[in-house]
From TrEMBL, chain A:
It holds the Pfam family Fer2_BFD. This is FAD/NAD(P)-binding oxidoreductase. Residues 403-456 form the BFD-like [2Fe-2S]-binding domain. Residues 7-357 form the FAD dependent oxidoreductase domain. It comes from Anaerosporomusa subterranea.
TrEMBL record, chain C:
This is Pyridine nucleotide-disulfide oxidoreductase. It comes from Anaerosporomusa subterranea. Residues 6-301 form the FAD/NAD(P)-binding domain. GO terms for molecular function: oxidoreductase activity. Pfam families: Pyr_redox_2. PANTHER family: ANAEROBIC GLYCEROL-3-PHOSPHATE DEHYDROGENASE SUBUNIT B. Keywords: Oxidoreductase. InterPro entries: FAD/NAD-bd_sf, FAD/NAD-binding_dom, Metab_Enz_Cyan_OpOx_G3PDH. The lineage of its organism: Bacteria, Bacillati, Bacillota, Negativicutes, Acetonemataceae.
Amino acid sequence: MSAESTDVVIIGGGIVGSAIARELSRYQLAVILLEAETDVAMGTSKANSAILHAGFDAKPGTWKGKLNVRGNHLYHQLWQDLSLDVDWMGSLVVAKDDAEQATIEELLARGNQNGVPNLEILSADQLLEREPNLATDVTGALWAPSAGVVCPFGAVFGFIENAIRNGVTLLRECPVQGIVIDNGRVVGVVTPHGVIRARFIINAAGIQADAVARMAGDNSFTIHPRKGEYILFDKTVRQLVNTVIFPTPSKVSKGILVSPTVHGNLFIGPDAEDVADKDDVSTTAAGMERVINGARRIVPQLPLAAAITEFSGLRAASGDGDFILRESETAKGLIHAAGIQSPGFTAAPAIAEVIADILREAGLALIEKAEFNPVNPPRRVFREMSWQERAEIVARDPLFGRVICRCETVTEGEIVATIHSPCGAVTVDGVKRRTRAGTGRCQGGFCGPRVTAIISRELGIPVTAVRKDGIHSFLFSDKLPGVCEVSTDEQP
Amino acid sequence: MNNQEQKASKRLTCIVCPMSCVGEVEIADNQIVRMVGFTCKRGQEYAKNEVTAPKRVLTTTIRISKGVLPLLPVVSQTPLPKEKIIECARCLANITVKAPVREGDAVYKDILGLGVDMIASRDIEAVGK
Amino acid sequence: MSSLKFDVAVIGGGPAGLAAALSARTAGAKDVLVIERDRELGGILQQCIHNGFGLHRFHEELTGPTYSGRFIRQVKADAGITVWEDTLVLEVRNDKTIWAINPQQGLIGITAKAVVFAMGCRERTRGAIRIPGLRPAGIFTAGAAQRMVNMEGYITGKKIVVLGSGDIGLIMARRMTLEGAKVQAVVELLPYSNGLTRNVVQCLEDFGIPLHLSHTVSFIHGKDKITGVTVAAVDQDRNIIPGTEFELDCDCLLLSVGLIPENELSRGIVDLDGLTSGPTVNQYRQTSYDGFFAAGNVVHVHDLVDFVSEEGDIAGKFAALYAQGKLPTATNVVAVKAGQGIRTVVPQRISWPDSSGKVRLFMRAQEPAVRVKLKIAAGEDVLVERQLPIARPGEMIVVDVPFDKIPDCTQEISVTLQAVQGGGLRE
């Protein structure tokens, strides 16, 4: 068993773990981030509404109330540095009767208290002028110009890549199997590759955060998976709405929304259903019906024929509904960043600041590094290039002249680059989330085999070792003699 | 064995034309004794062959080495006995030929001694040509 | 960046595009360009290694590669046809400039006097039909699996369930069986198979593969890799009948749930037909925008490749005539509409003057039926009436209408399919 030693181990490569890794990479620290899956952004961070919320929903005085607005503010600075895909398109909360109208007035007041900039109530006429496809019985809306939509996995990649560039070590397929405690203090984590000794451990394990806490004997909270289903539509129907459209929220949820994505698709969802199984990211007929019916309340004419995929994600709901950001009371040195449900994605960079503060208070010296570089190099996205740029890049690198994903115009050059980047893609879905190859209307029908071949070539592994997404998600078997033998007695 | 046991009846869907007639053929002592449901001559002929000696064209792939593609599609020159199809496919899974190959080449002769050659159904050039 | 000029540019080097290129040359086009995104010409036929192609055109049963090979050889032998393989068209503009890219030439801009769209079709996916369940590895469209098995040398699973009983689904059920896989079942939502009877018999019955009609996959199981599916019966409205569910183990689900004409490049330039999902065309396969033609599965999904080639012949010929200024401007246009019993009809309009002598209509029936009467009429004026012993949605109805029978008027032509005595719906 190796006994690697580090200052901080972060458990969990979602948006929270990655943002913390990037925040800590400013300092003279050794940091290792452990991810159980094949890639970062494989839990809640990959399947959520991908909204950078303005911050009017959360109660003033809560972590959510504080950190949503702060997070939104930070993203306005970070998105260019980290080369994230963000569209600051603003959001609307739509009211349909007097009671809902009263609620959006409350949200306005709450938002002002939380410090959300430039909130405004729109009349029904103003609203329908902006959004002509909405239900005609709307009475008004709350307009929040500071909201935006983000590429959710892209944001995680942006944070983690920057963290890696600044010295953080990422270990994927490295699940934490235990936490070593000595004298009431954490001293390391047990992994399949051995014990990693650490002075501090950050629990950013998302849906599994309570299990991680329990490994350290901390039973102070539980995480309840709450499932939300989504339907994603083709780009041909993007123009249905111009901004993120929420219904007036209920007590438990922001409701089923209709929103463009940052890449020019459209989605509807999520519903909210408490489930027992932390692996249950299935879509269901009932869930899809709820989502469709909910979305129809806002936009009656839904282009269902243009649906390209459905997915669901699990929110990591905690008992009291607020984020859990504190040092464990029973295991010193274990810092929880848990219960991160909406608006957790937005709050993530602010959560990272809070965690740094907690570490400092707990006795970790945070000394800034002179060589910290907050900026990621710009990604070379063929789809977004001018004709001139395209001509130039193909002249330099012929692989940019071979379009692998036709629906999203992704070239072989981009796929090769993403495989060899820091936190490079190792699976077909990993390539998809980084380049959009396979996210279009044919859902990888055309490019899937080609992406598989490129991964095989670039990573030097056989095609049969290429995986779709999860650890055991192998796609193809060899068609070798013997392997494909039939037992004839099974035939009539 | 008595006569009862040697008598069998088989239901068949005719594939000669889109009408897709469903008929029945009764066999006793390896002879067709009765045939109902097939509404045309071609259909009756088809049913007779299907019951006595059904045959199928086999299409599959074999490995090709040093070719621009890893697999060569092949087709049996004439239909093969239906009951031998799986066995033929299994036999061909073990075959490798060398590029280049021209469409129409008999790349594997006399499969399973059935007197039928397997024919390349496309050209495949050798790498580097 | 180079800039080049062609009489006719054909986008897509499958059966429609190859036929269009050859026919454009025959009709006098001096230089023809074929742009193919794959590494070689031939389109999807290259992975369709089974036989049964070409009975109409060549009067023999050919495999897909053999069928396309006949066209490819002619195209490659013709010095007047330029072929760019491994090349993707990024954009087509309505002034007939085309931007394409490949690794060898880089970004290439060309202008053509006439353009033929021949991009074929793509497969509907799981997402489009919203199958509930998890999202594990092992779910493939039948065509993607066909390519892996027949061209790349890998199999997608050893225990297979096929959803959809169109011809590709049936062919793949047999193909996977021959590769040593166990095909658990073919599951079909409709009460009938849309595939050819020949394929039901030779691909399923031959190997004892069960076909579950009026059933669907109601849930996909498996976290990383598919472990099975829940299958359930559906009622007449295609809703799941509770209590009918059963489980099938599998490590691979193949989807053969429909094909959609691939019109991303043509959308925005030409009008599309909401029912076929392809451009609306006249008898010359001329689209709604001057100088743009379309042929094959990009117009409407065909059952036989022979008809795809035929449509390519037509589009190529008239694109060439257009490029040479020999295609007269239409003096009158009459719409052709799908009436009762007919789902789609192509061409959707007929233009005057005509130089083809006859108009061949391609139609698909709404439902399977026996003893039906096909009527092509302009108001009260019956142009063609024909009794059909059987009509099946999976098989194209093809009828020639002599042009001199078509009245040169503004009245639309409608096509209907009605049961005659003793006939009607058939399952």
